[in-house]
Amino acid sequence: MDFKDTPEQAEFRKEVQAWLKANATPKTKDGGRGSQEEAYEKAKAWYKKVYDAGYACPTWPKEYGGAGLTQIHKVIWSQEVAKYDEPDGYFVIGQGNCGPAIMHFATEEQKTSLLPRMASAEDVWCQLFSEPSAGSDVAGLRTKAELKGDKWIVNGQKIWTSGAQHSDYGVVLCRTDTDVSKYRGMTMFFIDMKQPGVDVQPIKQMDGGSHFNEVFFNNAEIPDSQRLGEVGGGWGAALLVLMNERLAISGVQPDGFPEFFELVQSLELNGEPVVNNPVVRDRLATWYTQHAGIKASTNRMLTAVAKGGMPGAEAALGKLVGAVMNQDIANYALQLMADTGAICDESLAPQRAHFQKSVLFAPGIRLAGGTDEVMRNIIAEQVLGLPQEPRADKGMAFKDIPSGNQH
Amino acid sequence: MNFDFSEDQKFIQEQARNFLASECDTARVRQTLEGEQAYDQALWQQIVELGWPATAISEDQGGLGLGYLELCVIAEELGRVVAPVPFIASVYLATEAIKLAADKAQQDTWLPQLAAGEWIGCLATQESAGALTTENLNTTVTDGSLSGKKTAVLHGEVADKAVVLAAEDGQPALYLVDLTAAGVTRKALTSIDPTLPLAELSFDQAPCEKLASSADTVAILSTLFDRAAVLLSFEQIGGCDAALNMGKEYTMGRYAFGRQVASFQAIKHKFADMFVATELARSNAYYGAWALSADDVELPLAAATARVSAIDAYYESSKENIQAHGGMGFTWEFDCHLYYRRAQALSLILGGNPQWKELLVERLLRIKAA
């Protein structure tokens, strides 16, 4: 057991540190978030800079715009860039989910033309799986693709699509056969998001922001050459994408602890730092064990990955624990601020109203990428080997399955 | 980075698991639980022959010269089977106390004996309820003999010698006392986990030998408890695994409403939560093991984290395993209570969860300030 870099890794770390020092923006005391649009423009510029320096998508082969390095190099990169105020991870859905799908299923010509532009964020990608009637039961999706000549005509609606408003392309899962059971009638494609048949509408979230979108397809077209995998093989392809998603998001799930630790040391109640309060210390200890546990679990998983394994369903753990904790911490932080906790003005609330924003955004994190209950099912079924819940739609043709809101 | 045990260490663990699976099933544990014996002498003898108490003792002091990582994997297996032997008292507590507080000559005498299992050691520190203190000790040493009373001494009734916390001229230090000598009275107490029996030790001018390097008693006890906390956390995650597996197997084989009980989400989610708590505890224990084996400055924080996490996880797993069994889980006949009792006992040795949470926060703030 050790946490040392190998000589080669240490060399890489040094090189990355030197490059970041010359090129990245240092962190300032209170971070300062700009508008969503500014953040996007900043991320685009940063990714291009990273790409030009050869550090984009470190694990991708060089011919596809990557650096041809290992998962551990990617971790080293992330550790170092986290010390700066740069948006590492902004395009994680495209690069982390869509990238592997293209790498696995697209033609060589498509790969060499599309992937480098994805790596440099010149092209932005989104993932279109969820639908109004297909959330946790994502295989219940109904967006229809029909083959006309050598083109698929797409009609339907996707929802909760991150970054769709900026996207040039999307990886989309469609229903191509309703006469077979639901898992067998899906096909995966990549689609040109800038065509007339694609309409992106932002969703106004409960926190007032608009991070996610609805996407409407109205006779949108996809050439058959943009099919990813076999007709009817969409579910298997989607699972591959989701497995990569676990790797992409592992260790990046915010759990709120560092911000909370800073808060309890700076906030005073009745003339004393709140960290002196035994009740607060009890919560601090519990949350620290979870925070440290997630971090150490990630290190165990990365060790396994470095030895050639794939991240298992265990990765669901970090998301499940971190997202709940993030919400509870934000709530508790507001409680500590007492009456002034309700003040959301960035200029007045601690850490530019981080906790006020978090308490309103956190419910969404618990839903995105699988609800708490879905995460528990994944752990119970895929890790512990417990039986699936009996399914009422088993063996039925898709067209006969009731779904969505029926009242 | 390599945050995992080595192939050799995993091999040691597998050997330990196989040995204990065949030699220490719960029927065997129940012989001690039900009071037929204070500990399993035959099993202890086998464990001594396998050299487990010698694991983290250096070769020139009669040990195997392996290390704490090897001891951690053995601890996990002992915890998994709720082993009714004085391993915690003799190995994690007495042996480590001697390694930390005895001088070279004393170590050269005692450690080879402990490595060979010639005597069983225990640690006697506690005088009353509450956090351990080295101040105002009622156990005192005058003219080389020790008097006073210690309580909740793990395996105190069966140990041959005890490392005792006492004060001489108001200065706390550690002393080795032969428990078979004149002036020592032992009284068995009723422990919440009879497989980890407790005793009250009374000393009336008992002969004792001072552990020569124990002057900085506060620091020594702190390090001793940190080491033991990491080792105990492995016993605890072994127990978590066992409780989870027990509940899983039972609910997979039991049917209600026409289907496997384990197929209900309410049950699956219970097991998922047990798994999550156990995995977090395991990861924290691994970090503790690393800090222990590397003698890193982070040991105090890592140990407290491993300890709190393991206490929480074992409580969660052992209590929910009972619930997953329904009424049968509440019977003496079913083994659920073995894990529940052990979870309680392990959480209380070295001080309970609130004490360790407080230590954790103190240490976290100290690191931040440094």
From TrEMBL, chain A:
Residues 126-219 form the Acyl-CoA oxidase/dehydrogenase middle domain. One of its GO terms (molecular function) is oxidoreductase activity, acting on the CH-CH group of donors. Residues 232-384 form the Acyl-CoA dehydrogenase/oxidase C-terminal domain. The keyword Ribonucleoprotein does not apply. It holds the Pfam family Acyl-CoA_dh_1. Its cofactor is FAD. One of its GO terms (cellular component) is plasma membrane. Residues 6-122 form the Acyl-CoA dehydrogenase/oxidase N-terminal domain. Keywords: FAD, Flavoprotein, Oxidoreductase. It comes from the Bacteria. Belongs to the acyl-CoA dehydrogenase family. This is Alkylation response protein AidB-like acyl-CoA dehydrogenase. It comes from Litorivivens lipolytica.
Automatic annotation (TrEMBL), chain B:
One of its GO terms (molecular function) is flavin adenine dinucleotide binding. Its cofactor is FAD. It holds the Pfam family Acyl-CoA_dh_N. Keywords: FAD, Flavoprotein, Oxidoreductase. Transmembrane segments: none annotated. Residues 223-353 form the Acyl-CoA dehydrogenase/oxidase C-terminal domain. The keyword Flavoprotein applies. InterPro entries: Acyl-CoA_Oxase/DH_mid-dom_sf, AcylCo_DH-like_C, AcylCo_DH/oxidase_C, AcylCoA_DH/ox_N, AcylCoA_DH/ox_N_sf, AcylCoA_DH/oxidase_NM_dom_sf. Residues 6-118 form the Acyl-CoA dehydrogenase/oxidase N-terminal domain. It comes from the Bacteria. PANTHER family: ACYL-COA DEHYDROGENASE, ACYL-COA DEHYDROGENASE FADE28. Belongs to the acyl-CoA dehydrogenase family. This is Alkylation response protein AidB-like acyl-CoA dehydrogenase. It comes from Litorivivens lipolytica.
